[in-house]
Amino acid sequence: ERLPELLRRMPKAELHIHIEGSLEPELIFALAQRNGVALPYASVEDLRKAYAFTNLQSFLDIYYAGASVLLKEQDFYDMAWAYFERAAADNVAHAEIFFDPQTHTARGVAMETVINGLHRACVEAGPKLGVSAALILCFLRHLSEEDAFATLEQALPFRDQFIGVGLDSSELGHPPEKFARVFARCRELGLHRVAHAGEEGPPAYVWSALDVLKVERIDHGVQSAKDPALMQRLAQDRIPLTVCPLSNLKLCVVPSLAQHNLGALLDAGLVATVNSDDPAYFGGYMNENFLQTFAATGLAARQAWQLAANSFEASFLDAAAKRAHQ
Ligand code: ADE
Ligand code: ZN
């Protein structure tokens, strides 16, 4: 079998997808019209032209602007459903989906509206599309820990509709330890914990995500390769990294896909996975990430199988469900 067919066909789990980052320009414009929201862009093409990023922050500014069209429960459902259709087409069998409630509650959208819309799509994706799904609530790290605590409080009435918490947004200047207390509380509540670390930030942020926040996975983590002791820790404890190659390329974390360190992370024995991050902004969903990365780096079928196995191992599925995917 040709490698591209294997990459497309193999069942995989997606563990690093921001649902607001799956909002395609066409849907942004459709929702803006439906909700009477004015956009600072004249057309879909005009908006797409703004997708020329130099770093994480240059992306986040546009990403939060795009999310401003989401107001009603149906908007959140429609966004998630569009993602699930793409995921199913890429043979994604399981998805653990980030959402950023503070982006919405700050605009007066109720937590209930956000979670109910997303959760309804997650529930339907299993029977209708063959994609099992769960939600992970992310705290915005450029905001205060107090704000994160208030967000957790607002979400707790919906505790059974999300499986864990994450930490995202502007990394530099906002180290994980800023959120030590709220993550400790989430651990007491039995929530899973993940954090973006080592995307643009230093290995020290990966260490504190592990040792202070006690996260079970690291999102991105590609800067870990600069610290041999950290690499050893990640390998020994089998801490997964949810790597996002096209994101790293578009946000200038790497100069080219050919220079991406995914292969080196696998060679070091790490539980690395491939994910799309914000596919509407970075030029591709899961299979596009696999295809372009394999074409550029020369990874082969052996690594494809390893990445697929890693994606299920790294998931928060229970042991029986993981076995069913082996
Ligand atoms: N929010 C959405 N995508 C993100 C990324 N790649 N890093 C940090 N925060 C994000
Ligand atoms: Zn991300």
What's the short story on this structure?
Helix content is 49%, strand content 14%. With 326 residues, it is of the alpha/beta class.
List the helices and strands and how they pair.
Layout: H1 3-9, E1 12-18, H2 25-35, H3 44-49, H4 56-66, H5 73-89, E2 92-99, H6 101-105, H7 111-129, E3 132-140, H8 145-155, E4 164-168, H9 180-188, E5 192-197, H10 203-211, E6 217-220, H11 228-236, E7 241-243, H12 245-250, H13 262-267, E8 272-274, H14 279-282, H15 286-297, H16 301-313, H17 319-324
Parallel strand pairs: 1-2, 2-3, 3-4, 4-5, 5-6, 6-7, 7-8
Helix pairs in contact: 5-7
The chain binds adenine and zinc ion.
Residues 16, 18, 168, 196, 219, 277 line the site of zinc ion (ZN).
EC number: 3.5.4.2
Site (Important for catalytic activity): 220
Cofactor: Zn(2+)
Largest sheet report = 8 strands, parallel
Strand percentage lies at 5-15%
Bound molecules: adenine, zinc ion
**What is the H-and-E element order?**
HEHHHHEHHEHEHEHEHEHHEHHHH
Could you tell me the CATH topology label.
Answer: TIM Barrel
Output the radius of gyration.
18 Å
CATH architecture: Alpha-Beta Barrel
Share of helix among residues? Answer: 40-55%
How many E-type strands? Answer: 8
Beginning-to-end CA distance, first to last residue: 20 Å
Query: Helix count, per DSSP?
Result: 17
Question: What best-fitting shape do the alpha-carbon axes yield?
Answer: globular
Rounded mean pLDDT score: 98
Q: What structural class do helix, strand and pairing data support?
A: alpha/beta
Number of domains: 1
Determine the CATH superfamily: Metal-dependent hydrolases
Uncertain segments: none
CATH class: Alpha Beta
Strand order of the largest sheet: 1-2-3-4-5-6-7-8
